[in-house]
Amino acid sequence: MADLEKSLDEAGLTNESVREYVRHWADFLGAERIEVVSASDDARLVREALEAGEIEPAGEGLYYSRSYSKDTARSEERTIVATSRPEDRGVYNNWRHSDEIRPVVEGHMKGAMAGKTMYVIPYLMAPPGSPLERFAAGVEITDNRTVCLHMIRMARVGVNHINSLAEQDVFVRAVHVTGDLPNLGQGTPDDQRYFVTVADERTILHFGSSYGGNALLGKIAHGLRQAAYDGWASGEFLGEQFMLLGITDKETGETHHVCGGFPSASGKTNLAMTLAPDALGDRYHVSFYGDDIAWLWVDPSDGQLYGLNPENGVFGVAKDTNEKTNPTALDSIAEGTQALFTNVAYNESTHEVWWEGKTPERPADVTGWRDWKGELIADRNPDEANDPWAHPNSRFTTTLANVPNVAPDFEDPKGVKIDAIIFGGRTRDREPLVRAITDLAEGVYDGLTLGAEATFAAEGVDGKLRYDPMSMRPFMSYPEGPYAAHWLKIVGAAKDQPIFAHVNWFQRDEEDGHFLWPGYRENLRALLWLVQLKKGEVTGRRTAVGILPTKDELDLVGLEIDEDDLDTILDVDVQRWREEMGHREEHLRQFADLPEEIWEAHRRVAAALEADASVRA
């Protein structure tokens, strides 16, 4: 390609290792031309995408895109972690040997950009100057302009981040090829899609999608799978699917930081973007850091556990996002924010967007409305009348700076001190509102046995949770035994240990099914109690599975809640928990080389439950 060197020169790309990487893939993929992307190119790329019909206007400074109908979510069965080390195989990481899988996915990629533009996206998955910066640099190659727009919103994009690397050759090599989407055999035995992270080579190869994490390679492929492996291989940090927020007490000026993992549909984004309840707003302010990924490490200079959100944006689920559930999210995608919507319903006449849960009722006038597949709502037959207008996994993409309560120090490369680590899964029983854990091994054990109710009956038996260790089940990149040991090592090195806790906003009444806790902004009350416990201001009530708040410790000012409901969510169903321990043991026995500290924690909790049951009997 005669113009390749000229394109790289004009873009100001001076890192010779990156240039060599681009040369190799330009030749291998057969691209017609090269374009190096920086954040400053956003307005031009938007204009070009609008002209090409790749996106549509969705209001002033808002845009709408639609992916192929069979390309609307992550495909975990097609997602692979590859290394040259068979001992890296875990239960959940879908491991393959790199010598086996690389030729397959590269075979699909070869020549696949013939006649196309190859976009080169240099990016950083952490604030510049972070202690983890050498793990954060990457260069994504893609044939998809909309992917560039998403990456500009989700990462820090520009050649300056790559040119200035202390080690010029240390960056993640990320290659994304969309492929011929209607002819890839999605979901059939002839499926050609492969989403491969070659973790020990720090190379990501994704073929056969233009959607979300399948195509935005800085996000879960780099930010989670690769980062988790890097953190373990280096022994320096944890890469986790965690939200991160700060709680400031306006009276004392103190800020405490809470991070944690939640399986799908367990309220992670809503909690990350929460505000204080109206009754507590004069005293407390909640700051948003991130809703999806946190990197955690101990700073050797002071021995404290720190965390940061490596992302620069939010890729949130649109469904059920509204003024009650997440007003912060709505503000972050208001007109003028340059937000992108994917697979929501779209009105081609008014340029409005809509999704289930955005308003109580669908728009009454269906004129101009198209569903997530692009089909006119007005042309639907009666059998389709109740079909969703928006895809259940429809999304919005916006930058962190658009979030109205984003933390003032969200770009601080030092990160923030982590005071509490929480886990939470959607369960209708057994899990109280909040239970705190002060022992490191028991906290890690609780994270490893994190679970939520099965989404579909076929996924599990009645009463048995679908376990999702630390909410990392879809993102594991190395075996679970070493993963647990790495957790004990990293967090155990902290001079001031974080407090662990398990939260649950979803307990229901056995008879009529109503939620016992109002949820949403009221959830902050449980976190405030946790912070007070960490500071020694309250003592709680000790149970076999952790410390629970007493009624008088939980700040309920301005909240109306039934006393019986409150009693239920502040207690432990010992019999239900005894059943749970059997399921937990079965779950943990899958994992080879699980540290003995975890088994000891399991036995301690089980013995405490048996003792409690004897007392109650």
Please explain how this structure is put together.
- This protein has 16 helices and 31 strands.
- It has 617 residues and is an alpha/beta fold.
- The strands form seven sheets. Strands 1, 4, 5, 6, 7, 8, 9, 10 and 11 form a nine-stranded mixed sheet that branches. A six-stranded mixed sheet has the order 15-13-14-25-29-26, with helices on both faces. Strands 2-3-19-23-18 form a five-stranded mixed sheet, with helices on one face.
- It is globular and about 80 Å long.
Short note summarizing the structure:
The chain has 617 residues and is α/β, with parallel strands linked by helices. The longest helix has 21 residues, at 596-616.
Task: Tell me what portion of residues adopts beta-strand conformation.
Answer: 15-25%
The total of beta strands comes to 31
Number of helices: 16
Q: Describe the biggest sheet?
A: 9 strands, mixed
Radius of gyration: 24 Å
Kindly name the structural category: alpha/beta
Could you report the average pLDDT, rounded to the nearest whole number?
96
Residue stretches low in confidence (pLDDT < 50, at least 5 long) are 456-460
Oligomer: single chain
The helicity comes to: 25-40%
Shape from CA axes?
A: globular
Compute the separation of the termini in Å. Answer: 80 Å
What is the element layout, followed by pairings?
Layout: H1 4-10, H2 16-29, E1 33-36, H3 42-51, E2 56-57, E3 62-65, E4 79-83, E5 95-97, H4 98-109, E6 117-124, E7 137-142, H5 145-154, E8 156-157, H6 160-163, E9 172-177, E10 194-198, E11 203-207, H7 212-215, H8 218-234, E12 238-240, E13 243-249, E14 255-261, H9 268-272, E15 284-290, E16 294-299, E17 304-308, E18 313-317, H10 327-332, E19 339-342, E20 345-347, E21 353-354, E22 369-370, E23 395-399, E24 416-417, E25 420-424, E26 434-437, H11 440-448, E27 451-452, E28 466-467, H12 480-492, E29 499-503, H13 524-535, E30 541-543, E31 546-548, H14 563-569, H15 574-588, H16 596-616
Parallel strand pairs: 1-6, 3-19, 4-5, 4-10, 7-9, 9-11, 14-25, 25-29
Antiparallel strand pairs: 2-3, 6-7, 6-8, 10-11, 12-16, 13-14, 13-15, 16-17, 17-24, 18-23, 19-23, 20-21, 20-22, 26-29, 27-28, 30-31
Helix pairs in contact: 3-5, 11-12, 11-16, 15-16
